[in-house]
Amino acid sequence: MSVWALLMAAGSGERMGLGRNKVLADLCGKPVLLRSAEAFETAVDGMVVVVQPRDEAEARALLPAARFAHGSATRQQSVLAGLRALPEDADVVLVHDAARPLVSREVIRRCIAAVRAHGSGVASVPVKDTIKRCAPDGTVLETPPRAALRAAQTPQAFHPAQLRRAIEALEAQGVQATDDAAAMEAAGHPVFLVEGDPRNLKLTTPEDMTMAAALAGQEEGSMRVGHGYDAHRLTEGRALVLCGVEIPHEKGLLGHSDADVALHALMDALLGAASMGDIGRRFPDSQEQYRGISSVTLLETVAAELAQAGYTVENVDVTILAQRPKLQPYMAEMTARTAQALGICPRRVSVKATTTEGMGFEGAGEGISAHAVALLRTGG
Fold first, then answer.
1. pLDDT tens sequence across 30-52
2. pTM of the predicted model as reported, rounded to 2 decimal places
3. By C-alpha distance, which of 319, 321, 328 is closest to 356?
4. What does the pLDDT look like over 123-161, one tens digit per residue?
5. Does the annotation flag 204 for ligand binding?
6. Known binder of ligand: residue 154?
7. Is 280 known as a binding-site position?
8. Which of 15, 112, 185, 234 has its CA 20 to 30 A from that of 25?
9. What is the DSSP string of 12-27?
10. If you average pLDDT over every residue of the chain, what do you get?
11. According to the annotation, is 356 in a ligand binding site?
12. What mean pLDDT do residues 77-90 have?
């Protein structure tokens, strides 16, 4: 007999506005799906992850030891697919929304203990607001006693054979249950509630992601540092753009985009601090859409993705290495432009320039390089 987790990760994330499955998005340096899976690692004997086929490769890379099943048109059908992927000796299954990445090990243990003792264990929390049951026109029909109400969460733990039969019966009737507990109730099985956790929120909207990032940041420490470096060759016939400012010079930097070496280094520092890769992967030069694009536009995109993942840019420091031209007259404008793209106060942005005393490719006037350091804060 064994205990298995069934992670439901087959959503589209439309309400989150990410353009991808929200459980594959980053939350404070770690994908949502991975956070959810790690909470179960020490409590279960195995894991089935239900995903859409388009997301399977990425999910498998995160969880290579898991079994996988494909999601269907409804959550109920997706749960059924996951149940059918369980091994025959699975005695307990914990169905959990992968979009609840802050589930605690204590809640998981309570669910397992309840299903052993009572046949089911569903995480739930008391309702804080007064609930109104209304008619279609908005007229209040009833105010149920709040003390008797609970908001169901996941995990929801059951004996898998019972849950499978309950869902199959609903499917045969063409009925959709709102959660797995409702399917068991419809089949006549008593459902036992256990204490959940208000922090075990489900990521549905961008506001949920911001709140989850704040909670995750409280748990894991709040500061992350990244370093970036880039270098580009100087060539004739190109504009010289640094920190979004076009600077008069007889040569410009060669690259697929505008080759803004300073912002490229800065973006790598920001992405590195968040463990979100680098600009080579995020904006590959093999894609025509990035040809000649302003690096300010790319930096704005990075800043938006960091904010979506729950990061705040605390401060950045950029050092440009160039023998010529003299950059001091443009520093204030470069600082302001960088701050504007990041959406932060200019006092949080430092842009500096230095020569190499004639040494190296920068000193020979063959190219320009830049270093950048970024400090990100999570949970705010």
1. 899 999 999 998 899 999 999 99
2. 0.62
3. 321
4. 999 999 999 999 999 999 999 999 999 999 999 999 999
5. no
6. no
7. yes
8. 112
9. --GGGT-SS-GGGSEE
10. 93
11. yes
12. 97
> What are the respective helix, strand and coil percentages of the chain, to the nearest 5?
40, 25, 35
**Is 256 a known ligand-binding residue?**
yes
**Coil, helix or strand at residue 305:** helix
What radius of gyration, in Å, describes the C-alpha atoms of the chain?
26
| Residue 369 is labelled as binding a ligand | no
Q: Is residue 249 part of an annotated ligand binding site? A: no
Q: How far apart are CA 311 and CA 325, in angstroms?
A: 35
Task: Using DSSP, state whether 119 is helix, strand or coil.
Answer: coil
Residue with tokens 């008069």: 248
Average pLDDT over residues 55-70: 95
DSSP string, 210-253: HHHHHHHHHHH-SEEEEEEEEEEEEETTS-EEETTEEE--S-EE
How far is 357 from 324, CA to CA, in rounded Å?
11
317 assigned binding-site residue: no
Residue 11 is assigned to a ligand binding site: no
232 is in an annotated binding site: yes
